[in-house]
Write a structure and sequence with these properties.
43% helix; 264 residues; 7-stranded antiparallel beta sheet; alpha+beta
Length: 264
């Protein structure tokens, strides 16, 4: 934003919108263009949506660049705040909730953990798009009530499963996501007819199960699990905590020269 705003002067607004819209498509040149959407679009996220976010901060501050300085000191804490800048700088900030599941590896007994991370609103949207869950408008609407989430990926032999716990801003938002998550799994497991209820859906297939379950404003997805883990929904809900996250500390690393201890 700094470089283009300086170079383009009064043409900045028009040109930067075209550039940002291009970044948002995730189209990359050469062999990079054949990478999965997840890799392409998360790579381009900071360029397209990130620059949009900076532009919104500047517009709200009447082009006062100290607003950008402040954003480095008090960083946005979710892709949701980047996608919806007013949830970052507005009067009513929408802070993400840090989701954790106590003793989750015991719940997934017999499975070896591979990874844990947060999808966030942006990647959640990518997942819904990947499996064409509902209409484009339905997918956009469903992701916007995001409050927090965490997934844990596990393996056992050749099988990989995941425990994905999502928290929503309201019960209605959770119901909306529950419904579209069923559509996602129906497209993922096309030959499987799920058993569906108001708060739970189960997909049973050769070698595993997928369970989607809602409790109040939370939705839990146990994907491609065995029978034992499929029955651990109540345990998982009971072990989950959701803590509002309002600040993170930046990691500061200081290099000490091994030959000259005083040099930092």
């Amino acid at each position: 934003a700094v470089g283009w705003k300086w170079g383009l002067k009064d043409k900045y607004g028009l040109v930067i919108k075209i550039m940002n819209d291009s970044y948002k498509t995730g189209q990359l040149p050469g062999k990079a263009g054949a990478l999965p959407a997840y890799l392409r679009k998360t790579l381009a996220f900071s360029y397209g949506y990130g620059t949009d976010f900076v532009n919104e901060l500047l517009k709200n501050a009447n082009d006062d660049w100290t607003a950008i300085d402040k954003a480095f000191a008090e960083m946005p804490l979710s892709t949701e705040q980047i996608l919806h800048p007013k949830k970052y700088y507005g009067a009513e900030k929408d802070w993400p909730r840090d989701v954790t599941i106590k003793d989750v590896d015991k719940i997934a007994d017999g499975w070896k953990r591979l990874a844990t991370n947060v999808h966030g609103e942006f990647v959640l949207g990518l997942l819904l798009d990947e499996y064409r869950a509902g209409s484009k408008n339905d997918r956009k609407k469903a992701r916007e009530g995001w409050g927090g989430d965490r997934y844990y990926a596990y393996e056992k032999g050749a099988n990989v499963c995941s425990i994905w716990y999502t928290n929503w801003d309201s019960k209605d938002d959770a119901v909306e996501f529950f419904d579209i998550a069923i559509k996602l799994m129906e497209n993922k497991y096309k030959d499987v007819t799920p058993e569906k209820g108001d708060t739970k859906a189960t997909f049973a297939f050769k070698g595993g199960k997928t369970v989607i379950e809602r409790k109040d404003a939370d939705v839990l997805i146990l994907d491609n699990v065995d029978d034992a883990l499929a029955g651990k929904g109540a345990d998982t809900f009971g072990a989950a905590t959701k803590t509002e996250l309002k600040k993170i500390d930046r990691l500061k690393m200081v290099y000490h020269c091994p030959k000259h201890a005083e040099e930092k």
